[in-house]
Specification:
Layout: H1 2-10, H2 20-69, H3 82-89, H4 92-97, H5 99-102, E1 124-129, E2 132-146, E3 151-153, E4 164-176, E5 187-194, E6 210-215, E7 219-220, H6 226-231, E8 237-239, E9 242-244, E10 247-255, E11 262-265, E12 277-280, E13 284-289, E14 296-303, E15 309-317, E16 319-325, E17 332-337, E18 344-347, E19 357-359, E20 367-371, E21 382-388, E22 394-400, E23 403-404, E24 409-412, E25 416-424, E26 431-436, E27 440-448, E28 451-457, E29 464-470, E30 480-485, E31 490-495, E32 498-500, E33 504-512, E34 519-522, E35 527-530, E36 534-536, E37 541-548, E38 553-560, E39 566-574, E40 577-588, E41 591-601, E42 608-615, E43 618-622, E44 624-631, E45 634-639, E46 646-654, E47 660-669
Parallel strand pairs: 7-15, 24-30, 32-39
Antiparallel strand pairs: 1-2, 2-3, 2-4, 4-5, 6-10, 8-9, 10-13, 11-14, 12-13, 14-15, 16-17, 17-20, 18-21, 19-20, 21-22, 23-25, 25-28, 26-29, 27-28, 29-30, 31-33, 33-37, 34-38, 35-37, 36-37, 38-39, 40-41, 41-45, 42-43, 42-46, 44-45, 46-47
Length: 671
């Protein structure tokens, strides 16, 4: 038993199991192996998390690119100032993307000059996904596509001499920090080319609308004033029976307009009221555009459902709709729309604008600019006033002074006058001012831009009055004179209307303004003398005798009042003549009456008529009765023939002066 126990305790170790030393050694080996496996497991988990972060970064980058490419090219750099873009170019992301060697950093098209805009695409932003903060750098820079080489680079004129097209390169770099680090850097980048032209080379798989016509051609800043609507002839806009404030815009396309197209207006350019857009057929799209109150250059984008789009640049102008100059205070007030607070004013004539005040009343009324102590241009001169807004947009208004081109203007002393005045630049609302003379009640009637009527009561005889016209905006003519002359006698009728040759005829003049002592003179012609008039009936009647010569023609007589007022009338000098004769008979109560009508010239109202009848060799005088001189050219009488067959009839008309004329009807049959 002892031997057996001794053998068990001191036998061969290979047969005796683990001892203490072996167990310790085994534990050490297991520990080392476990440590190596744990390190491998941890590394595997870290790699999986890194791939997940990179996948997330790719998603963030792709989403950023989609946001950029969804914008019309006109909005790509909206609100991205030069300062912000320059700071972006200085980042490590710009170095990583090699921006300076691939994009044109000298192009002003990379940024927005208006510092007041909020960017659609900021230069740098952050996004947190799964507790990881991703910093997103958005590069939108101009590059120049070498058409032949197919490479978009920083030079508009590359050394190759190839033609280039302007493109935008949109590049996005997403950076994040990983606790385990990144073998290739914790960045993910992507980029694309955007063609800003209306006929883009890229995205050629899209339907691109091709704009053929775009109306209207001019837009003005929106205002509720009716006078702005008068300038903007298409306001209000009626579409599908609905009425909106703004312009009815019609766009026709020659190709590429898809059903369901929409309209976008670049920021600041206005809105589409009610977002109502109507497609007419397959080539026209109509909509209403209500512009905003800030003048400037904007884009209208026609956007197909597949993203294909065309841009139409528009200019929204501020406008001066009314200019009013106060003749007393000499303040000029410009009214309109698009005037911004803190705008500055200047003009071409050097008027002081330091005290001018600008008020923006949008949307409740007209914007105003008030310029005190303003001196407008005169006599055809011009002055252009420019309102410059803080965003550098400007609105101009030109005052063109009217000018009078008439000369030798005269009016009548003491009487109302309406004188036609010719000129240029007259404007509705024209007024008149008198600067010298004693005329009264001056006013002016606007007829056209080149004609006006000056109304006034004349001043003293042989003096002049000085006037000038003033347009509503203050532009005025130079001074012009109107001479006051004596009011002339007015001849309304002369009886008789003719005188016979070689006679002295008493004439009765009817009219007004005949003054006692009025004189008369003849001005040559077929008269030898005229007597001095006798005035009666309070100056409404005058009589005189006019003596004619032996020839026919006219006599001109000049009447002159003692105060210098003068007028003329013309009298015809003629001799009696007969040009024709007709006969007409009627029967009344078995008695037949023969009436003869004679036509000719210079028949006196007291003319007498004789008539003879010759039948065969027998000539007899007919009894003449009921002679009636209806005018100096026609008379009638009654005479009964002796025969009813054919006969020769001769009529003679004799005036009181002794002048006479005869006429024969031969082989005339009395009916």
């Amino acid at each position: 038993m002892f031997d057996r126990m001794g053998q068990r305790l001191g036998g061969n170790p290979a047969d005796g199991g683990f001892g203490m030393v072996e167990m310790v050694a085994a534990l050490i080996v297991i520990g080392l192996a476990s440590a190596a496996s744990a390190a491998f497991f941890i590394t595997s988990i870290g790699g999986a998390n890194g791939n997940k972060s990179r996948t997330t970064a790719a998603y963030v980058a792709d989403q950023a690119i989609e946001e950029i490419t969804a914008l019309p090219p006109s909005d790509l750099v909206y609100g991205r100032t030069k300062t912000a873009v320059t700071a972006l170019w200085a980042t490590a992301a710009a170095t990583k993307l090699k921006i300076s060697s691939q994009d044109d950093e000298t192009s002003g098209a990379d940024y927005d000059t208006n510092t007041g805009h909020t960017p659609y695409i900021p230069t740098q932003t952050t996004r947190t996904v799964n507790n990881i903060v991703f910093t997103v750098y958005n590069f939108i820079d101009v590059c120049w596509m070498d058409v032949a080489a197919g490479v978009c680079g920083p030079n508009q004129h590359p050394a190759t001499g190839h033609d280039t097209n302007k493109e935008y390169r949109a590049s996005v770099d997403v950076h994040w920090v990983s606790s385990g680090g990144c073998h290739a850097g914790c960045d993910y980048s992507t980029s694309t080319i955007i063609d800003p032209s209306s006929d883009p080379t890229y995205n050629s798989d899209l339907d691109i609308p091709v704009i053929a016509t775009f109306t209207p051609s001019a837009f003005y800043t929106y205002n509720t004033l009716a006078d702005v609507a008068a300038i903007d002839a298409s306001a209000p806009c009626v579409l599908n029976g609905n009425t909106y404030t703004g312009d009815l815009v019609k766009v026709t396309t020659s190709a590429g307009l898809d059903a369901g197209a929409t309209i976008r207006v670049s920021s600041g350019g206005g809105t589409v009221p009610g977002a109502e857009v109507t497609e007419v057929g397959s080539s026209e799209i109509d909509f209403c555009l209500q512009t905003a109150d800030v003048p400037g250059n904007y884009f209208i984008t026609v956007l197909n459902p597949d993203g294909g789009h065309a841009n139409q640049p528009i200019t929204v102008n501020g406008v001066v709709t009314k200019a009013a100059w106060n003749t007393s205070t000499r303040a000029l007030t410009l009214s309109g729309s698009g005037f911004e607070p803190n705008a500055t004013l200047s003009d071409t004539l050097g008027n002081s604008m330091s005290s001018a005040t600008v008020t923006n009343n949008y949307p409740h009324g007209a914007d105003t600019a008030v310029i005190p102590n303003f001196s407008p241009p005169t006599n055809g001169g011009k002055d252009t006033i420019t309102i410059t807004n803080p965003d550098t947009t400007s609105i101009s208004y030109t005052i063109t002074a009217p000018k009078v081109t008439s000369s030798g203007l005269t009016g009548y002393s003491g009487h109302p006058n309406s004188i036609a005045v010719a000129g240029t630049g007259f404007v509705q609302g024209l007024t008149v001012a008198m600067t010298a003379g004693n005329c009264t009640n001056p006013s002016v009637t606007y007829n056209s831009s080149g004609a006006a009527t000056l109304n006034f009561t004349g001043g003293s005889v042989n003096t002049f009055c000085t006037f000038h016209f003033i347009n509503p905006d203050g532009g005025s003519t130079g001074n012009f004179n109107v001479t006051n002359q004596a009011y002339p006698p007015q001849v309304t009728s002369v009886s008789p209307t003719y005188v016979e040759v070689n006679t002295s005829t008493s004439l009765t003049l009817s009219g007004s303004g005949f003054q006692s002592g009025m004189s008369a003179t003849r001005s040559g012609g077929s008269c030898t003398s005229v007597s001095q008039p006798a005035v009666s009936n309070g100056g409404s009647t005058a009589t005189l005798t006019l003596t004619s010569s032996g020839g026919t023609g006219t006599c001109t007589v000049t009447l002159t009042n003692p105060d210098g007022g003068t007028t003329t009338f013309t009298e015809t000098v003629t001799k009696i003549s007969i040009s024709g004769m007709t006969e007409y008979s009627t029967t009344y109560q078995h008695t037949k009456t023969y009436t003869w009508t004679v036509t000719g010239t210079a028949f006196s109202s007291s003319a007498t008529v004789t008539m003879s009848e010759k039948a065969g060799n027998n000539t007899q005088s007919l009894a003449v009765s009921a002679t009636s001189v209806s005018s100096s050219t026609q008379l009638t009488f009654n005479a009964t023939p002796f025969n009813t067959g054919k006969a020769n009839y001769t009529v003679t008309v004799t005036n009181p002066s002794g002048s006479s004329a005869s006429y024969s009807l031969n082989n005339f049959t009395v009916s």
